[in-house]
Amino acid sequence: MERLFETYKEYFRVGAAVSGIFYDEEGFLKKHQAFVEFMKTHPRPAGMPEFKIHEPPKGPFPDLDILKRHFNLVVAENDTKPGNMNPAEGVYNFESADKFIKLAKDNNQDIRWHTLLWHSQAAEWMFKNEDGSDVSKELLEERLKNYIFTIGNRYSKDICSVDVVNECISDKKFTLRDEEDHSKWLKFLGPDYVDKAFLWAKEAFPNSSLVINDYNLEIIPEKRMGMYNLVKGMLKRGIPVDTVGLQMHINMERPAVSEIEKTIELYGSLGLNVIVTEMDVSVYADFQPGKESEPRKEYTKELLEKQAERYYELFECFKKESKAGILKDVVLWGITDRFSWKNNFPVPDRTDAPLLFDVNGNPKPAFDRLIKPII
Fold it and tell me: What span, in angstroms and rounded, lies between the C-alpha atoms of 202 and 299?
């Protein structure tokens, strides 16, 4: 079987996110517990059932063999987020990140770091003094800077690309997130916190591309322009952002490929690179305001063939934007459907099938369509 990354080696690297499930069952449970906490702070639409945590599935798993064979770029799905890396003042959890780095190096894969600054799964202790009162701006800046340099000092020599700031654009106002959009960074540090994070990251990760990453940029025009205005201003101020990351959690219905092209070319017009950072293609087109969620579908041959054509059209778009010198990487958010974050989200107890390999690790029609593109 031909390797996926070799099919696209003339265009871009093809990556995948690695989940903590590969390390131990305890890690799997911790990941899902973190997601439960995330759900508590992100209210669901009225009528949405309560999220239920599930027992970890039993191995053996084919995911590591698939990862080694078909991907030349990797990122940790959860293990390298700040809340996991630095759970308390003076306490660092390097174990899972070290295992992730070793795994990638053993496979001769390039490595992305996700993420240095995020409002969710953050190192929450940073915002409080020992007595529980709010921390000062000066102390929070010092803590954040120390965190970025600690991570950089340990891992920068191995990292080719780092998500410096993740999901900072508001879904409501299309400017920097505030507390209404679940982020404390703007309140505590003011609007220049993004600039400072990138300046520190440039020192801490001198050989890495510096990425600002967000979701729905290819779907919501106002959010797309909010990010455009932010990075345009950063460039004018001499801030060393060089790449916009499009998460690309999409489905088989939307957005149109033309919208994705428009998004990539908009950021490319600023001289920035673009990468796809967290791609999956859900077989459900729901979770839209005013629409009820779809019940679980049967993953029929016809449905999977439709998904395959969607993946093919998207990768053809990516090839075009790579030829234009803009698009550099495409990363899938997972390896097999078994461990996709889309299982049980946004609808509890409903599975999804958004990736290239099924729950047993078998290639799906989408994989076959990508590995043998029509010339």
Answer: 45
